[in-house]
Amino acid sequence: MRSLWAYRGFVWSSVMREFHGKYRESLFGAFWAVANPLAMILIYTLVMGQLMRPTLPGYEKTPFAFPIYLCAGVISWNFFSEVVSRLNGVFIDNGNLIKKSNFPRVCLPIIVVVSAFLNFAIVMAIYLVFLALIGHWPGLPLLAMLPLLLLQTCFAVGLGVLLGTLNVFFRDVGQLTGVVLQFWFWLTPIVYTLGALPEKARPIMQMNPMTPLVQNYQQIFLTQNWPTWAPLLNLLLISLGLLALAAWFFSARVGELVDEL
Fold first, then answer.
1. Rounded to 5 degrees, what angle do the CA atoms 167, 101, 14 make?
2. CA-to-CA distance for 26 and 125, rounded, in angstroms?
3. Do the Cβ atoms of 87 and 177 come closer than 8 Å?
4. What is the DSSP letter of 151?
5. CB-hemisphere CA count at 13 Å for 192?
6. Residues 214, 77: contact at Cβ < 8 Å?
7. What pTM value is reported for the model?
8. How far is it, in rounded angstroms, from Cα 35 to Cα 13?
9. Could you read off the pLDDT of 144-189 as tens digits, one per residue?
10. Would you call 118 helix, strand, or coil by DSSP?
11. How far apart, in whole angstroms, are the C-alpha atoms of residue 113 and residue 11?
């Protein structure tokens, strides 16, 4: 923590440089940071909302039910996926910087997390504007998104740093992670509900640690209710275990990173 505080300027300038670098050569600049998530929400509302609406029991007559449900799941998943996938290659992608500069290596994962959170905040702000315009503001349960986001970040960071450190020594980890994330997305109730699955498949799907997290996001925004905290206990324990394991493995191997890179 002392190292991060001492290098806070380096972390923030790296995040801003990365953000501006995405749009530096484009004609409309940072407008695309808003246009892309806006297009996603419009597509889900205009197209998917009409095709998939009957799959939400009790909301057959609500025209925006499925877009709200789908966007809540996709936005939360995209944040998780971005953090894990980028942390998976963070040390390899910054190999030259690690070799040439002397700075706390832990800064690199923090830069990834802050950058992903910035992207998440932009998309979530547009989503909230959309909810306000259609008269479906979640109200006070929106505050519960903060502990959910913290839990999700801990889980993503623990998993991502562990995979990113392993990837330096075993490059197949990076390739495998991308494949697993694709399957993981479809094994999480984002574009469907658990009720749409056969009864025998539901207990298996509930073993997915992302299932209760995504369901609670959907509960906040669709039903406007507070999350159900009990199912998140397992995810909390997994997250703490991953963070401890990732911190131990990273600390044990950080001296070998330069040689492997």
1. 80
2. 23
3. no
4. H
5. 11
6. yes
7. 0.88
8. 24
9. 999 999 999 999 999 999 999 999 888 888 889 999 999 999 999 9
10. helix
11. 10
